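Quick review question:
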């Protein structure tokens, strides 16, 4: 089995996620009412997890029912299951666009994945969010009609260089107190982003 895990969360957006399904084998998990999104996308889950307060009924699929009063969100339950199965790459659909507290909890879930040596992407109808960690250089392909924003998720990020964009940076310091990296634009085939220290939050958003 692949180390890829696809999780469908219960974001309320009517439009389909802006990132298509990857064409490779993956664990397919639904977090509670994320089952509805999976069904809309023609996906059959391996397991549905949650307390099912949002779905309103037990699913007609393999499921694990958790208590309503718990420390983990339903999405985190799915993440922990994926980690236990050896997954190290996660794409979480339906993770954005609803209540802000849920969206921010999902950003923290990206940090949880990083803590466990895994990577993740949050996908909504108009946005994709991911982390980039210290000592890495990553290329982000140009997506027509999308902005490219870079934020410091830690107190500060040092040695930040961005090339292939309208507003490049070279060995800059970004802090969590100033959104200097918001609403940039990829002008080459891809943006090349390096960070030496700290954790960046990358957002690609539809205009």
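Suggested answer, residue by residue:
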């Amino acid at each position: 089995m692949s180390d890829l895990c696809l999780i469908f969360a219960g974001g309320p957006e009517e439009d389909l996620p802006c990132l298509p399904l990857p064409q490779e084998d993956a664990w397919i998990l639904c977090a509670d009412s994320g089952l509805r999104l999976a069904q809309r996308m023609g996906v059959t889950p391996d397991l549905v997890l949650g307390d099912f307060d949002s779905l309103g009924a037990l699913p007609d699929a393999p499921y694990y029912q958790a208590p309503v009063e718990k420390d983990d969100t339903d999405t985190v339950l799915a993440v922990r299951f994926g980690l236990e199965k050896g997954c190290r790459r996660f794409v979480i659909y339906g993770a954005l666009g609803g209540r802000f507290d849920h969206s921010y909890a999902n950003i923290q879930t990206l940090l949880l994945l990083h803590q466990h040596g895994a990577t993740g992407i949050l996908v909504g109808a108009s946005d994709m969010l991911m982390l980039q960690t210290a000592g890495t250089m990553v290329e982000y392909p140009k997506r027509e009609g999308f902005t490219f924003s870079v934020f410091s998720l830690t107190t500060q990020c040092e040695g930040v260089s961005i090339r292939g964009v309208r507003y490049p940076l070279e060995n800059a310091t970004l802090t969590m107190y100033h959104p200097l990296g918001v609403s940039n634009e990829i002008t080459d085939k891809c943006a090349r982003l390096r960070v030496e220290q700290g954790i960046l939050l990358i957002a690609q958003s539809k205009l």
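Why it works: The chain has a mean pLDDT of 93. The CA atoms of residues 151 and 207 lie 18 Å apart.
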